[in-house]
C-alpha cells in the first residue's frame, strides 16, 4: 500500500533520519506513553539501550542528543535547532532531565544511555530499548523500537502487524507495474493517481498546504545553507563549501569568457544547492527528510534546478514533482528499504536519485512510462553503494554524494525523456535487485563505520 507523500517527506533536524529523527520520535513516544498510562509520577530512572548501527555510529549521528530531546518532549518537526545546545547543556550539567517537562529524574549518560556495539536486535540494525524504573529499582514499563529508515519508527508489535495495516485508497498499488497499469486503465498520470490517494486521506486544501510547507522548508534550508560559512561540527574540521560554490558561480558571470561556462552553470548551481542542504543536515539544522536525512540534498537540488532553469515552472510542476517522487519512494519503502543500516547507501542516496529523476520527468511533461524509466535509471547506477561515513558523521562522503546523485538524477531524466519509455530493466526489477544486493552486503558496509572509507582514511 502506498505510503503518504507526507510520510516520505518529513520536516525534521539533522543529521540522520534513522539515527536522529527516528530515535527522537521513539523517545518522545515512550515519554508520552508513560503519561498516558499514568506512570509518569512513579518513574525514578530511565535506561536507554542502543543496539547495532545506532550504537556504532549513533554518537556521530547525534542519537544521544536526539534521545535526550525526545524524553524532554521535543519533536523533530518543531524543535528549535538554535535552542537545542542549551537544552542539552542543562541536562548534562545537572545530570538530570525532566520527562516531558513534568517528572524530574537523575540522568547520567554514561550509565543511563548504554551502547551495545556488538549486539543487534532481531528485527532491524537500528534498534533501541527504553526502560522506566520505579523507586524500588524494578522496571515499571519497557518498549523496544526500531528506526527503520526515513524517520519511520515501529515497535515490536507494530513490526508484526504492519503488513496487515491497510487504508481505503481509490488507487492502491504495491509495485511500479501496478501503478503503470492503473495509469493506463484510468487514463491518469502518476501525479494524478498520487494526488487522488492523498485526497482520500485529507482535503485537497490540506494536500496543497502540506506540499507548500515541504517546498518552503526546502527553500528555507537552501537559503540558510548558502549563507553559512565555517567548519562543520564533529571533529573532522570539514569546511562548508556551499557558499563558496555560489560565490564562484556568481563571479563567473563577470569573467571574460563567461559564455564558455554557460553549459556548466546549471551543474554548478545544482552542486551549490545540494551542498547547502547536506551541510545544514550535517550541522544539525532543519531539513526535509527526502527520503532520508543523509540524502536530503538530492531532491531540493533537482527541484531548484527545475525552478531556475526550466521555463514555465510553477506550483503545479513542483507539486507534481513531489507527488511522483513520493510515489516512487513509497515503492522502495514497501518493497526494499530506505535505511542505510539495512541496505547501504543505495537505500538512501540511490533512492533519492531515483525519486528525483522520476519527479523531474513528471514535472517536465514526461509520460508515465518515461518517468518510470527515469526512476529505474537513477537507481540502476547506484546499486551496491555502501554506507561508510568517516567518524560516524554524515559528512564524508555523504555531502558530496548528494551533489553527485542530484546531477545523476537530472541526466537519468534526460536520457529517459529521449526515449519512448520502453526499456529492458523495469523499476520493479531494479528495486528487487537493490534489496537483494543490500541483503548480500557485509554489515561493515552498512552504516556501521567499520569498513570502507571509514577505516581507510589515511591520517597524516
SSE inventory with pairings:
Blueprint: H1 5-8, E1 10-13, H2 17-36, E2 45-52, H3 53-61, H4 63-72, H5 84-94, E3 96-99, E4 103-106, H6 109-112, E5 113-116, E6 126-133, E7 139-149, E8 152-155, H7 156-161, H8 176-186, H9 190-199, H10 204-227, H11 242-252, H12 258-282, E9 286-289, H13 298-309, H14 315-335, H15 340-343, H16 349-363, H17 368-380, H18 398-417, H19 427-440, H20 453-456
Parallel strand pairs: 2-5
Antiparallel strand pairs: 1-9, 2-6, 3-4, 6-7, 7-8
Notable characteristics:
9 strands, 60s Ribosomal Protein L30, Chain: A, two-stranded antiparallel ribbon, 460 residues, alpha+beta, five-stranded mixed β-sheet
